[in-house]
Amino acid sequence: MTASSSADSSVELTSLSATDSLAGFRAGDFSPSEVLDATLARIRSVNGDAQTGINAFSEILADDARRAARRADDAYTSARREDAPVAVLLGLPVATKEKHGLAGRTLEQGLAATRGEIAAANHPVVDRILDAGGIIHARTTSPEFSCATVTHSPAWGITRNPWNTAASPGGSSGGAGAALAAGMTSLATASDIAGSTRIPAGFTGTVGYKAPFGRIPGLPPLAADWYRGDGPMGRTVADTALLAAVMSGRHPIDHGSWGAHGVRPDAIATSGPDAVRGLRIGLDLTLGDYPVAPSIRANTERLARALEGAGAEIVPVSLPWTTELITRTIFAHFGHILGPAMAALTAGTEDRLAAYTRRFIADAAAAAQTTTPPESLALDARIQHDLAAAMSGLDALLTPTQAVEMLAASADYLDGIDVFDADGAPRHLGHYWEAHMTSPFNVANRCPVLSVPSGMSSVGVPTGIQVVGHPFDEAMVFRVGSAIESLVEMPEFPALLT
């Protein structure tokens, strides 16, 4: 395809995968400047305002990005002339989460307490993206301090799901998911402490990867929190693996970081459906008693049958968990690390916090009063042991990403969430985080987890499936994820944007 091959070339260029864009740059079919211009035009066309629009960004860096794109144009021209290699992301638009500091730019995390703060240096993943030739053209929204699974804040307004603007794209990396789904970036950075990469991936029909703890470097001191991690999001499994390779590897600023830099986790001999032939893959539809919506259950079961047809053995698994146990476990952990850190940072500005932030700090503090650090570690160990036992003899485990079809874009869910159980009976969950099936794998955070689209729900919002690997086995989750991607047909863009 060339940039002039269609009257609507901007839409065509922004619909390309990252890997296809890079191939086009190398071949000279179109230039980084053309893709960037198309991406910026797409943002102007579909992003909208902070209250009614998709509103995926805290900041657009158009001028800096255009200068970088022109340099990339020249670099590709020289490389083609001299048959020379280029940096792996050269010329590709990448949107970074606002919390991933960019030197000289604001680093506010949506909080009144940090309004006007400027990053003194780049976050490690930002440095690696820039070193790889990526063009940071925009920074994406999140809830305050990334502490919610919806994305709205007094600072940045409401971020909405491009598939259904009444719905949230999820959180906390909601701006990243919305930007990818709407064609406003090629790749995006995210972070994950209870599902903040995988939840928006599930709700926006994109791919999100939670790497094993330490595989992608973070910033101290909270980089030492073994539930958390930064990660990549993309529109395809291969794109997500590409960004994972750029972000991953030992870094001197994070002494918990490990492994080689620049190694793709999807380097396998086979891809597509054949990748799962002969594998034993576990399937747990509910992770105990999560109230999984019928459309999500149906999409997951349909996909399991397709994997069987591709030669995998699907093994039913039933983990002995409850949503109450998982919530107790994670908030005991947050009560001794993240909650106190947030309380200290926001002291004196409590009246200007979003309601969900106040709720999170209060819940974490209450959990710390009832569960000591050793008891919290014991709860973690129980979850980890249960998962290891359930996955014994399996190559990977599948489970839905989310239990509910959507969250309302502007809601706080201070009183929990009303759902329906497997029999259709109404059920109230005391904390809306119980509607997501992601946080057990932050407790077991050495396990890599990839969220891949599994279909569409009855409310026009995508559904996702998590591929859970054994500790540090990154290649397996990308291997299975590649097969899933080839078996699930998803629309290219949300209908309201086409």
TrEMBL record:
It comes from the Bacteria. InterPro entries: Amidase (IPR000120), Amidase_dom (IPR023631), AS_sf (IPR036928). It holds the Pfam family Amidase. SUPFAM superfamilies: Amidase signature (AS) enzymes. Residues 34-477 form the Amidase domain. Belongs to the amidase family. This is Amidase. The lineage of its organism: Bacteria, Bacillati, Actinomycetota, Actinomycetes, Micrococcales.
